[in-house]
Amino acid sequence: MRMRREISLIFTVVLCSSAAFSLPTADHVVHEKRDGTPEHWMKLSRTTGNTPIDLRFALKQRNLERAEEYIRDVSHPGSKHFGRFWTPQDVIKTFAPSEEAVSDTVQWLLQMGVTSKRIAPSAGRNWIKVNSTIAEAEKLLDTIYNVYQDDEGTALVACESYALPASIRQHIDFVSPTIQFDPRTGITSRRISKRETIKPKFKAVQVEPEPTALDSCSELTTPACLRAIYEIPEEVESVEGNSYGIVEFAPQSYNQGDLNGFFSVYAKNVPNDTAPIYNGIDGGYLSDELGSGTRGESNLDLCYAMSLVHPQNVTLYQVGDGDFSNPATNNNFLDAIDGSYCAFEGGDNPDWDGIYPHDASTPNAYTGEPMCGTYNATNVISVSYGRNEIDRPRSYTTRECTEYMKLALMGVTLLFSSGDTGVSGISGRCVKDNGAPTPVGAEYGRFNPLFPASCPWITSVGGSALPVNGSVGDQEVVAYEFAPGGGFSNIFPLPDYQTAAIATYYAEHDPGYNSSRYNNSQAVRGFPDVAVASQSFITGIDGGFQAFTGTSAAAPTFGAMITLINGERIKAGKGPVGFLNPVLYAHPEIFDDITEGHQAGCGTEGFHAVKGWDPASGLGAPNFARLKKVLISLP
Question: Which among 130, 137, 289, 596 counts the fewest CB atoms within 10 Å?
């Protein structure tokens, strides 16, 4: 509440002083400009002057250029401040735009004739919203707005360039809607977009393995197999202050009967009817439909997360309601665990995110206000969902990744699956020369990295497996029943914790593709960071068992390992380990290197596993005992 009072006070002072305020007179200076109309868009007409428009002035945040410095200070094993994580108030104070940026921008708007009741600075001081009209916006920004339409019928308003006074321009990152040709805030008619995401493959179980047998672990994975492969302890205790979160998005829904069936056979350490702590977000809809399409992902995640950490509790963040025409996204989840994110850079996106309340006429619709800072973040959060980097506007994706950086500063370990289609994107889509996705399963095009796996502030978990007909104790290979996701980002620069690993990879194992295939600049984030077993996880479903394959299985398994180690750290009087990557890259001895296998896509064999880090298997497969030794030794 203190931050809100401070913002209110700043705004009040601005309003009271506006009559005496005088900005230096100066002509408008072009702030942003685009070259021509993007492909697949057509200019229809000039926008009428009385058309309403909500302008968003994104104020320049302070200190984002110091993100790596801040992360290194709390997460690098050599830092004397390791583990001294930030409070949410620290994050807001450090990154919020300056008071001068807020006051100067508001005073300019008032001077230009915008009434105070139409000006709304956000609680975090990150942006200023103005309820306006096209005529007023054109005056403010010295521009002309037109209506454009794309090939699929989406219409939006945009301009070719816009300008700001030099004295204000220094405070502004960007203004929207202006030159952006993404349906962000300038949308006037909206199509329902299909959300493609990681989906584990499944198959029927012909012969159910014995619960504790290890002779078939190369064919079917059980909790006993994972404990044997990674030396995960079976005797576990619950530790106060320790927590593990699993995120699911409606309509994916776990079924307690299916969990009970799994526990009673393959995880007898977990009593029947043991349920996750339920944190429902924006409806938290749980479907009662049968089938792997609804139950598969959630049952898989919870069967293994709960069996590996019990009696430590697992929290389920169940996100979204029964209105699947406007489904929830990662941003809706992030709003619920970080109240400062709700309005960050304009808040949720009306084209991509779930915008609540939903219409009460839709069955199981959430008709309440969107959740904002409702729940605490658990120490470890595993997410088995992702999308292609190109599927959303760069500004949208960067905004989300910045939030992961802030959560990392606050000591949250975030794990994301790296994907299940190799160097191709979701559904086997590659990238055309014009930046658009290819058809599904195309045998051509540039590699298509996945997000959030490509964000430098999360730990990206790829897939591994025992060799065909192999045994526990054999060196793992890249998963071969599917192609684990991996590659190089087209958006995010190379983080310092990964610099040496990437340099060695290119010096000793350059994959040979040129820039027509992927971003081979050697200056961007590579992923995954680690590889964990991800093939044929036997899972309770529809009263029986199926085997699920994909990095959707790997992320919750690795998350369970970190949760167990956090428990040991907390018992020793220490805190959770937080953001892992600086420690992992500084201690390659934690891993059993993977040097066999590859992940194909886009008409190629993709990247091959080699000695050291590579885009097929990351640093390799973690050994729990060595991982624990390193993490427990840290302050």
Answer: 289
Contacts of 30 (CB under 8 A, 6+ apart): 161, 162, 163
Alpha-carbon gap, residue 430 to 150, rounded angstroms = 21
Q: Are residues 457 and 382 in the same domain?
A: yes
Per-residue tokens: 527: 């992923």
CA angle 515, 519, 525 (to 5 degrees): 160
Q: Are residues 173 and 216 in the same domain?
A: no
Whole-number Cα distances in Å, 455 to 61, 68, 262, 408: 19, 13, 34, 12
Residues 205 and 185 in one domain: no
Tokens describing residue 632 = 């427990």
Domain boundary among 135, 155, 189: 189
CA distance 233 to 308: 9
> For residue range 89-116, what is the model confidence (pLDDT) as tens digits?
999 889 888 889 999 999 999 999 999 9
What's the CA gap between 140 and 158, in Å, rounded?
15
Give the 3-state secondary structure percentages of the chain, helix then strand then coil, rounded to 5: 30, 20, 45
Question: Does residue 337 sit within a domain?
Answer: no
d(CA 568, CA 478): 30
- Token look-up 């203190």 returns 2
Which residue intervals of 45-143 are DSSP H helices?
A: 67-75, 88-95, 99-111, 134-141
Return the active site residues: 297, 301, 552
CA distances from 421 to 337, 441, 619 (A): 30, 10, 19
Query: Are residues 563 and 601 located together in one domain of the fold?
Result: yes
Whole-structure pTM value? 0.88
Question: 114-142 b/e with 16+ CB inside 10 Å = b?
Answer: beeeebbbbbbbbbbbbebbbebbbebbb
Same domain, yes or no: 491 and 423: yes
